[in-house]
Amino acid sequence: MESGVGTAAVPRGLPYYVAFSQLLGLTVVAMTGAWLGLYRGGIAWKSALQFNVHPLCMVIGLIFLQGDALLVYRVFRNEAKRTTKVLHGLLHVFAFIIALVGLVAVFNYHKKKGYADLYSLHSWCGILVFTLYFVQWLVGFSFFLFPGASFSLRSRYRPQHIFFGATIFLLSVGTALLGLKEALLFKLGTKYSTFTPEGVLANILGLLLACFGVVVLYILTRADWKRPSQAEEQALSMDFKTLTEGDSPSSQ
């Protein structure tokens, strides 16, 4: 059993921001479901309601779960690094699968209705985000979970992985806001400017989406909230570097 000597203290304020982010994220998911249920007829796969699967899946996958995957290294500060990596990767896998279901739903719906695909700014941004997300996961798996990458290569790629992870998350939030506005304009048209209940609810949902993105990015950018390197991780990194690059371990 590990003693508390090597346990890193949780920074003041971090638990409150993480809890606030989860409250925002769950509220966003719940409000998306409420919007679709109250004003769009609900959700079904084998009917005209198939389109509604798209926004719900994208919010759950590419917003909420992706945001949580990014926060894994802030929340689990003292667990084994490999366990944290696996959890980080699994959350991204779940997010990708759910987003894929949402993508299939909208293309199937368009095909049934005879609508054109990929003509709007929202659809272009959506395909870009989905593609980048898939590539980011593949490259991340190859570098950090697959045992073939060298220590130096992982170290050089890590800053790019972190940067593109945050960028893709930010693009996901922006794309969701574009889609929300597009859906409102298609259905409400000029009524949108009359402060209809659906428009007000969707506007609040958009603000909460933006707030969730801002809170997650704030947690990620606080340097003093990063997961500290543990002694065993540094030793394993040195051993891995020695085995893969032939370097001799430096004296302590």
From TrEMBL:
Under the heading PANTHER family, the entry gives: CYTOCHROME B561-RELATED (PTHR10106), TRANSMEMBRANE ASCORBATE-DEPENDENT REDUCTASE CYB561 (PTHR10106:SF14)
User: Could you tell me which residue ranges the Cytochrome b561 domain spans?
Assistant: 20-221
Instruction: Give the bilayer topology.
Output: Multi-pass membrane protein
Instruction: Summarize the protein's role.
Output: Transmembrane reductase that uses ascorbate as an electron donor in the cytoplasm and transfers electrons across membranes to reduce monodehydro-L-ascorbate radical in the lumen of secretory vesicles. It is therefore involved the regeneration and homeostasis within secretory vesicles of ascorbate which in turn provides reducing equivalents needed to support the activity of intravesicular enzymes.
Cofactor dependence is on: heme b
Which residues are listed as membrane-spanning?
16-38, 58-76, 88-109, 121-149, 161-180, 200-220
What name appears for this protein in its UniProt entry? Transmembrane ascorbate-dependent reductase CYB561
GO CC annotation terms, alphabetical: chromaffin granule membrane; lysosomal membrane
Catalysed reactions, semicolon-separated: monodehydro-L-ascorbate radical(out) + L-ascorbate(in) = monodehydro-L-ascorbate radical(in) + L-ascorbate(out)
What is the native source organism of this protein?
Loxodonta africana (African elephant)
- Which keywords label this protein? Cytoplasmic vesicle, Electron transport, Heme, Iron, Membrane, Metal-binding, Translocase, Transmembrane, Transmembrane helix, Transport
Give any single GO term for biological process: ascorbate homeostasis
Q: Which InterPro entries match?
A: CYB561/CYBRD1-like, Cyt_b561/ferric_Rdtase_TM
Q: What domain of life is recorded for the organism?
A: Eukaryota
What is the primary gene name for this protein? CYB561
